[in-house]
Amino acid sequence: MSSEKMKVTCAGEKWCPVTATAKLIGRKWHPVVILELCQVETLGFNDLQRAVGGISNKVLSDTLEDLEEKGFVDREIANEKPVRVEYSLTEFGDSLAPVILAMAEWGMEHLEPPEGVEMVTLPDDFPR
Fold it and tell me: For the HTH hxlR-type domain, which residue ranges apply (predicted)?
């Protein structure tokens, strides 16, 4: 993705950058997939599915396709048998790391997981 800004429409009379950003990454699994890909260079489909947890094959496939179409994720077919597909963030996708980190920090400060559910922790070297 070039340094040219992406054009995103908003409902209403005025354009809102928060609404526009939420329109791109506001679907349930989008931020979680981006979070996982921020932490590693590449992940195969099954590894990504395990890392995300609780996501079906179809939903992950649809999420990755949408993120790829928007320029956040790169999909590369490895030259292996059986065929292996690897996913990574593009430079554009990687630019979302501070947004995802802010969401995680806000959630850790203001939200509490249900009893008996382990909380995801971010590594110290998470991109900031």
Answer: 16-115
Q: Is 73:89 a contact under the CB 8 Å cutoff?
A: yes
29-109: CATH topology is: Arc Repressor Mutant, subunit A (1.10.10)
pLDDT tens profile 41-84: 899 999 999 999 899 999 999 999 999 999 999 999 988 788 88
Can you give the pLDDT at residue 89?
A: 96
Rounded to whole angstroms, the Cα distance separating 115 from 84 reads 38
Say which residue the tokens 């993120």 belong to. 67
* Residue 57: C-alpha distances to residues 88, 98, 114 (Å): 18, 27, 25
Query: Are the CB atoms for 37 and 93 separated by under 8 Å?
Result: yes
pTM, full prediction:
0.84
